[in-house]
From TrEMBL:
<keyword id="KW-0029">Amino-acid transport</keyword>
<keyword id="KW-0813">Transport</keyword>
<protein>
    <submittedName>
        <fullName>Branched-chain amino acid ABC transporter substrate-binding protein</fullName>
    </submittedName>
</protein>
<keyword id="KW-0732">Signal</keyword>
<dbReference type="InterPro" id="IPR028082">
    <property type="entry name" value="Peripla_BP_I"/>
</dbReference>
<comment type="similarity">
    <text>Belongs to the leucine-binding protein family.</text>
</comment>
<dbReference type="Pfam" id="PF13458">
    <property type="entry name" value="Peripla_BP_6"/>
</dbReference>
<dbReference type="InterPro" id="IPR000709">
    <property type="entry name" value="Leu_Ile_Val-bd"/>
</dbReference>
<feature type="domain" description="Leucine-binding protein">
    <location>
        <begin position="24"/>
        <end position="366"/>
    </location>
</feature>
<feature type="signal peptide">
    <location>
        <begin position="1"/>
        <end position="21"/>
    </location>
</feature>
<dbReference type="InterPro" id="IPR028081">
    <property type="entry name" value="Leu-bd"/>
</dbReference>
């Protein structure tokens, strides 16, 4: 009888230990870790890693098991074809959710892979409206889209800066062209004239032919839809041609890297918009900035806080559903309403963030300063 009691106790202890055993849950991340905008991809990856470290430090239990989150990061090179390969690789690896991709050109094709797999994906930075207009059930975004960003820029440019003639250039990526098209339409609605519409690509470094053509049209402003790797030499060559036009851009150029690349060319005639609000205005921005710098010995480039919130949203949805399985926690993700670093995280029926702000920045004293 005594032996039976001992045996029973050992069985119960074993069951208890099994119930409390660690379960490793992989979260996928996808973005450019090599190439001209690798600094933005790595910035975001660090934001995700910080969110996972915070979650693991809390000792989260889901479904009776203590969860250890693990990051599986893939380099999509900001390339559409590579992005679909990377997406399938993450699906095959058994990740339970994905934070990515960084660019719209990568997110849109990759989203089809995630939809077919039923795997939730939250982009921290892809702003093309097309992404969430596809009707997919697993695609979400924690940042404002291009339509909101273009409208904000057009209003400021026309009503505050008094710009009436604008030339528009884009890099023909889903992000660059989408934002440029949206801006051109918004400017026209406000009575401004689009005097030139040119395009390049996201690998170009020589813009002299385009700029010489636009110089003859004497625009008040030139808008570039693209990233800082091309925006910096474009601005430099614009000034070399003696053009005094105001230079406008979106969040792809609203980076600390742009401040380094174009230190000699940046002045009070340069403006950019950024989806979201300034870090010092974010509910958790000041603390996040301090922690990020301490952890990685560097400044936030652009999207790290949004990556942090995207990763946290996946984890909070799993907690709410008491399951790490995508099919079970997806309803909780749709209904999610939490306070993040960047603001309230809650999604509309399409998967867009409900409260996506936009900020207009000007250049002053070596940094981007929120103008409105």
């Amino acid at each position: 009888m005594k032996l039976n009691r001992i045996a029973l106790s050992l069985v119960l202890l074993g069951l208890t230990a099994a119930a409390q055993a660690d379960l490793t849950v992989k979260l996928g991340a996808a973005g450019p870790l090599t190439g001209p905008i690798a600094h933005i991809g790595k910035d975001g990856e660090n934001g995700i890693r910080l969110a996972i470290e915070d979650a693991n430090a809390k000792g989260i239990t889901i479904g009776g098991q203590k969860i250890k989150f693990e990051l599986l990061s893939e380099d999509d090179q900001a390339d559409p074809r590579t992005a679909t390969t990377v997406a399938q690789r993450l699906v095959d690896a058994g990740v339970k959710g994905v934070i990515g991709h960084v660019t719209s050109g990568a997110s849109i094709p990759a989203s089809r892979v995630y939809e077919q797999a039923g795997l939730p994906v939250i982009t921290p930075s892809s702003t093309s409206p097309v992404l969430t207009q596809q009707g997919f059930k697993v695609t979400y975004r924690v940042i404002a889209n291009d339509l909101q960003q273009a409208e904000a820029m057009a209003n400021y440019a026309v009503k505050k800066l008094g710009l009436k003639k604008i030339a528009v250039i884009d890099d023909r990526t889903a992000y660059g062209q989408g934002l440029a098209d949206a801006l051109a339409n918004a400017m026209k609605k406000l009575g401004a004239q689009v005097v030139g519409r040119e395009f390049t690509n996201d690998k170009a470094t020589d813009f002299m032919a385009i700029l010489t053509k636009l110089k003859a049209k004497n625009p008040d402003a030139i808008f570039y839809g693209g990233m800082d790797a091309q925006g910096s030499p474009l601005l430099r060559q614009l000034r070399q041609l003696g053009m005094s036009a105001t230079f406008l851009s979106g969040d792809g150029l609203c980076t600390s890297e742009m401040l380094k690349l174009s230190a000699k060319e940046l002045d009070q005639r340069v403006f950019c918009t950024q989806a979201g609000i300034p870090m010092d205005k974010m509910p958790g921005g000041a603390k996040f900035k301090e922690r990020f710098k301490q952890r990685y010995n560097g400044e936030v480039q652009l999207y790290a806080p949004y990556n942090y919130d995207a990763a946290t949203a996946l984890i909070e949805a799993m907690k709410a559903a008491n399951s790490v399985e995508p099919a079970k926690y997806l309803p909780a993700l749709k209904a999610l309403n939490i306070k993040g670093i960047t603001g309230n995280i809650a999604f509309d029926a399409k998967g867009d963030i409900k409260e996506g702000g936009v900020t207009f920045y000007s250049y002053k004293d070596g940094k981007w300063v929120a103008a409105e």
